[in-house]
Input
Amino acid sequence: MTARDNDIITPLIGVEIHVELDTETKMFCRCRNRFGDPPNTNVCPVCLGLPGALPVMNARAVEYAMLAGMALGCEVPDLTKWDRKNYYYPDLPKNYQISQYDLPLARDGSIDVPLPDGSVTTVRILRAHLEEDAGKNIHDHPGHTCVDLNRAGTPLLEIVSQPDMHSAVEVGAYGRAMQRLVRWLGVSQANMQMGHMRFEPNINLHILRDGVTYKTPIVEVKNLNSFRSLEGCVEYEIRRQYQAWCDDPDCTLEKFGKENRGYDVDSGRTVYQRSKEEAHDYRYFPDPDLVPVVVTDDLRHRLRQGIGELPLARRQRYMDAYGLSFKEADALTQDAATGDLLDDAVAAGATAKRVTNLLLGRVAAVANERGCTPAEVGVDARQLGELAAMIDAAAVNASAGDRILDILIAEGGSPRAIAEARNLLAVTDTAALEAWVDDVLAAHPEIVEQIRSGHKKAKQAFGFLMGQVMKTSQGKAPPAEAKRLLDERLHVR
Ligand SMILES: [Zn+2]
Output
């Protein structure tokens, strides 16, 4: 068969996301949970799976996972338990992974995902459960493979969505929304270069031809660690699955079931790995070393209190209450602390618009250089508010404002004291302004004549005089006032 223009193709895509939780210690032992340490230095009998070692649950990890579940609108049941998922692999020293099978700690939620066109789509969350991560096989030695078990036993939250997405764009937006949410909650750094967040999309197509719907096999693409590969593999699979079905109409879900594929970033293609295992292949059974977790109303209440305003709600508030544009509001709600800085500066008496300009201007530029968030640049909210108020009151002009901000970033201090010490306050003294303007006019009679005679370069000449006034005043002349006065002097003989 061949492709037909009138085939109606509906991709159905669900995503499993693995999020490494940002706890001090591992999930079931007291080893440090940290990326980048020398191989096999953060290990102990528990995470090495030595005989007789007993796991002890990390309560903080459970709370982080519940927090994420609640923020996703999930139900957090009264009882959750631990199961052993049995498989054999060199990076898994116990030969089983402690996970959650039939009683996950959160289920049935949803997340609103903003799309690049400004609309919002809702993705349902099937479940979120907690498990321990495996170690890492390292293949960069010729002739043999090494295993680093520092990561073995670190807490991993697996969030499973329903197949509610239909394009690479939606899947990418979902991944970004999830990254923003877990960072917002402070439960994960969600740094993809460090493997804090890994994606496994499940993709198949429903193809409507001649009134009949055909379903292609469900492909799970394993272990993607960038948005680019997430979006790239979805695009590729949509094309590949349609072509595969056109080539062989027997290539259907009923006949082939599910399969795992890997994604090769360089070629932009997926590669067949194996037919997908089913739950019974793992012989799940309750872990006899760990007691079930009983969730009390008190705990639920306490965690819920800590969630506060979520990113999309806050973005809307910034647009409604502060009059910010979508772009500005979106940029300031990438993490909670940057938004808090805006709110606190406004509470200190500044206008939201001015603070936004400072945050998305000079502060964002510094953040960009340092590879951190605007909040992490470390400006104090009260000082930021004071500086914004000074600019609004024309006590300093915009360029002096940026200089003061640089000093605040480098050394801290009071904006007013900095402005005074460095002679950056705008001069509102009319006599001083008049003196600067008159000095400049007296120093450049030929240019004054050019302007008065309506020379074709009069506009540039005026700009030159303005520059001289600012220079003479060492940047302290309020530009609007200086311009008005200069104009007045030049056109009144
Ligand atoms: Zn350990």
